[in-house]
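If you are new to this repository, start here. Below is one unmodified record pulled from the training split, so you can see the exact layout before writing a loader.
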Amino acid sequence: EEQLVESGGGSVQPGGSLRLSCATSGFPFDVLDMGWFRQGPGKCELVSMKGSDGRLYYKDSAKGRFTISLDNDKRTIYLDMTSLIPDDTAVYYCAAGYWPHDLPYRGANSCGQVHYGMQFWGRGTPVTVSS
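And here is the target side for that same chain:
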């Protein structure tokens, strides 16, 4: 059974940092593409993606602040977030699947459901950025 379990969320002041982790099992980790999404009010956004071929994507507002990385030995996906701002407040989800990188992401009502080629999803970890 495919499993993705996020951790590392929490409350932080503006300007702070967090490292999100996503432990995975049950699927070929080095074959699938991996990503982080976030659920804001009424919409799911793509934050970052790392393809199995090394291709990278970051949402514009995440460029220069967030870094996605993978540890193949630990089968874990990370999202290092720095210079956090209140607009980063959301529930963050990791996902795995086949990223259609030539197609722009058009969003979804809810994260956690199969879309944009992402077949497997975690249950999310909340991040709150507030003073």
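Two things worth knowing about this chain: The longest strand covers residues 18-25. Residues 38 and 45 are 5 Å apart (CA to CA).
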